[in-house]
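Researcher: Structure prediction, please.
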Amino acid sequence: MSTALKLSSKEQVQHAKYERLIARAKKLSPISTVVVHPCDETSLHGATGAAAAGLITPILVGPEAKIRAVAETHGLNISGFEIVNTAHSEEAAAKGVELIHKARGELLMKGSLHTDELMRVVTASATGLRTARRISHVFVMDIPAYAETLFITDAAINIFPDLGVKRDIIQNAIDLHVECGLGQPRVAILSAVETVTAKIPSTIEAAALCKMAERGQITGGILDGPLAFDNAVDLEAAKIKGIKSEVAGRAQILVAPNLEAGNMLAKNLSFMSKADAAGIVLGARVPIILTSRADSVRTRMASCAVAALYAHARRRWTALPAA
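Model: Predicted structure follows.
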């Protein structure tokens, strides 16, 4: 059976933002992608579907017998894919990172193992994929009721980021937004209120981050903060509060004060507003497609598309002549 993802006309309208990203990525060549432990139907279907769509060329890393059994059970064609056999998920994570070090892949994709298991290997100080930039996660949200493709960061990696870490979190998200072809983003730095007060430290950090952007320490985006969630995404709420800025009411990137707030916000939108949440990790040597085991194939496809667009942008960076 074909592994390409097919959407109904109703689904295509509801998830038009994802469809535009996927269509943009399809125009480019497939990206070699190391898929770690794709040992259930959803993760293997996500990889094969993205391959059928021309987004990625997967290298499947994990217990070969289990991968083949899943493919046979669910009618997924993996005959053209390289399989690197490992004994278990922990070894698959280590082998996946090793393949990235050997330049076998430009993307790393999480399969059916726990996020902590993969990220522990990715962030290992001696053998992992760290760079000078802090590693952070971005949810790319397709919300039917919101006009913009909405980024939420960081809701999965950095628990209590300080000012320096937030700078990297914001820069990672801005770079992703620009390189996905979505233009210069409007970045809202969230807190509980829109005024700066010593009683809420996140408001002070928001103000400092805006000043850092003014001084060129954060580039490529338009920042405003602190902003409460309502006046970050609703023009009428911003008007009532008397907030005048390019960001208020129509933010494209929401920067959470900490992981707990970001995670609850993203999951609230997913379950209460029927949003889809694609996921990608930035700041490592390669982009990492980091999705939940409960994610739909469509969401995994969108994650692959976003990561592929970013990987192509990285090729352009490395091709630029030295100044």
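Model: The longest helix spans residues 297-319.
Researcher: Thanks, that helps.
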